[in-house]
């Protein structure tokens, strides 16, 4: 049986649904994720996006397994630069960060904190070389200074599975 997870903004007007297992459950510390988190958190009344140690926790889903099912007209996209291929989407009703879309990619990285219920465990921490926090790096999962081959392998195999219709 396929798992369906629901995420929602803080006030409940925007709701998203993700079906099946995520491609990956990760915490990213790259410069863009940190800057994007700060950008969202600076919005009036915004909900937190960053973890206390500056990481951004994601559940990453194939695009065909993720949808905004309520409040689509309330979703606003933000880019760090005009030509950035990455866009962060926020529920404008309460300034809750909802998800990140990398334009040429076939995946959507959803903010883990927006989901209710039992979630898959975090599998890895990426770009830890870019951390700016003075807090100790959690040692609960593998941590990589960059983006590991394992991450790209997961993205590639998920695309192949999409192409064969599974």
Summarize the structure in words.
The protein is an alpha+beta fold. The protein has two helices and ten strands. It has a seven-stranded mixed sheet with strand order 6-7-8-9-4-3-10. A three-stranded antiparallel sheet has the order 1-2-5, with no helix packed on it. Strand 7 (86-91) and strand 8 form a beta hairpin. The protein is globular, with a radius of gyration of 15 Å. The chain starts with a strand and ends with a helix. The model has no long low-confidence stretch (mean pLDDT 95).
| Class inferred from helices and paired strands | alpha+beta
Radius of gyration based on Cα positions: 15 Å
User: Taking strands numbered 1, 2, ... along the chain, how are they ordered across the largest sheet?
Assistant: 6-7-8-9-4-3-10
Report the average pLDDT across residues: 95
Tell me the series of helices and strands, N- to C-terminal: EEEHEEEEEEEH
Described by the principal axes of the CA atoms, the overall outline is globular
| SS elements, strand count | 10
Low-confidence stretches: none
Helix share bin? 10-25%
Straight-line distance between termini: 14 Å
Largest pleated sheet: 7 strands, mixed
Instruction: Tell me the β content.
Output: 25-35%
How many helices in DSSP terms? 2
Reconstruct the topology from this structure.
Elements: E1 4-8, E2 15-19, E3 24-28, H1 31-41, E4 56-62, E5 66-70, E6 75-78, E7 86-91, E8 96-102, E9 107-111, E10 124-126, H2 149-163
Parallel strand pairs: 3-10
Antiparallel strand pairs: 1-2, 2-5, 3-4, 4-9, 6-7, 7-8, 8-9
């Amino acid at each position: 049986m396929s798992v369906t997870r629901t995420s929602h903004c803080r006030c409940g007007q925007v709701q998203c649904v993700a079906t099946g297992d995520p491609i990956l459950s990760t915490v990213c510390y790259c410069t863009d994720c940190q800057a994007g988190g700060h950008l969202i958190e600076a919005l009036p009344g915004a909900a937190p996006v960053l973890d206390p140690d500056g990481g951004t926790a994601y559940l990453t889903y194939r695009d065909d397994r993720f949808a905004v099912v309520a409040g689509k007209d309330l979703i606003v996209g933000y880019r760090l630069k005009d030509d950035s291929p990455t866009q962060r989407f926020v529920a404008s009703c309460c300034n809750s960060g909802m998800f990140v879309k990398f334009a040429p990619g076939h995946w959507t990285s959803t903010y883990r904190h927006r989901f209710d219920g039992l979630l898959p465990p975090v599998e890895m921490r990426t770009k830890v070389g870019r951390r700016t926090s003075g807090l100790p790096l959690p040692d609960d999962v593998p941590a990589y200074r960059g983006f590991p081959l394992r991450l790209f392998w997961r993205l590639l195999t998920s695309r192949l599975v999409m192409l064969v219709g599974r």
